[in-house]
Structure formats: C-alpha cells, structure tokens
Amino acid sequence: MNIYWQLVWAYIKIGIFGFGGGYAMLSLVEKAVVSPGWISETMFTDIVAISQMTPGPIGINSATYIGFVAPGEVDPALSGLGWALLGSCLATLAVVIPSFILVLYSSHFIRRHSESGVIKAIFTGLRPVIVGLIASAAIMLMNAANFNPRGVSWQLWTNVAICGIAFCLAYFPIKLGKNSIKLHPILIIILAGIAGFILYGL
C-alpha cells in the first residue's frame, strides 16, 4: 500500500513544479517513477508514446497510465484491475489538483499585475527554462529503449532514419508543383505505425 502514498506524493510535486506543460515535466516524471524502479525505462517510453497518441494532455495521460501499471510492477499482490484503477485515479488527481489550485488562485493576481515589472521579469526568466526542460525531455527519449531495444544494429539505424524522416515531414512543407503542403501529425503517426509494423511485426 505504500506505493500509493509514494505515487500521490510524487505527482503532487510534479503538479506543483511542472512548468511548461507535459513535455517540460517529462524529466520530472522520469526521475520520479523510473529512478525508484516503479517501472522500467522501456515501459516509460512506451507510456510516453501512448500518452502522446491518446486524446488529452500528455502529463495527465502519463499519470493515468503510470498509476495503472506501477502498483502491480512494485508489488505483485496489487496487480488486480481494482488496484490498478485505484493507482490510476490517485495519480491523476494528484497531478491535476495542485495545478488547478495554483492556477485558480494565481491567475487573478497575475491578471491584475500583468504590467508589473516583477511579473514580466519572472516570466522572462521562466521561458528559457521551459525550453530547456522540453529539450531535455527530447534528449532523454533518445535512448536505447526507443531506438535500439533489441540491440540489433540495423534496427538502430532504421529507427534513426524513421525519426529523421518524421521530423522532416512534420517540419518542412512538401512541394507539389506550385503548391506546398505540410503533412498532418496524425498522418505521420499512422505512417510511422505502418512502417513499424512492416519492419518489426511481420
């Protein structure tokens, strides 16, 4: 049962200090749930991928999924559906409630003092930190669990190529005659899933 208190406390901290949205808080989440051994690094990257593809904020989605799997991973006696749902609800509420309270009580103050030099200076200092946290999340996900989970050389380079192609398709427009289009991210996800199934599932 101690895992539930640990989950709640970990996600309360993440909810309070998770500036910059889901991607910025990924490094906090990884530190909180992978370092203690609640879930493996491979499972964490899978949960991040699922959280990105499912509707809703990635921070809340990942809390729901991690709360669902962590109790059973830590203690086999808590592997039932009821225990998993309890962990899911607790982790989700723990990450949402602190943010809700902070936004509720700070938004009025910030709106009233939006022209204050102190408030502007605080946000000016926070912006590059948030960019750094998002960049650290991207670097953190560039690991063996994502790019070479089976230790096979050709899979490593294939996954690097898929990553590079997906980035180019998402960032650069494709020229079709006089027109140029950018592929929708959902289409890129579907194409990547098809490529993964052909390369690794058949």
List the helices and strands and how they pair.
Blueprint: H1 2-17, H2 26-33, H3 41-53, H4 58-74, H5 81-112, H6 117-140, H7 144-147, H8 153-171, E1 174-176, E2 179-181, H9 185-201
Antiparallel strand pairs: 1-2
For this entry, give a set of tags.
9 helices, 202 residues, two-stranded antiparallel sheet
Describe the model:
There is one protein chain. The chain is mainly α and 202 residues long. 74% of the residues lie in helices and 3% in strands. It is built from nine helices and two strands; from the N terminus they run H-H-H-H-H-H-H-H-E-E-H. It has a two-stranded antiparallel ribbon with strand order 1-2.
Shape: flat
Low-pLDDT stretches: none
Gyration radius, in Å: 20 Å
Roughly what fraction of the amino acids lie in strands? under 5%
**Averaging pLDDT over every residue, what do you get?**
83
Across the major sheet, the strand order is 1-2
In short:
The protein is an all-alpha fold. The chain is 74% helix and 3% strand. A hairpin with a 2-residue loop joins strand 1 (174-176) and strand 2.
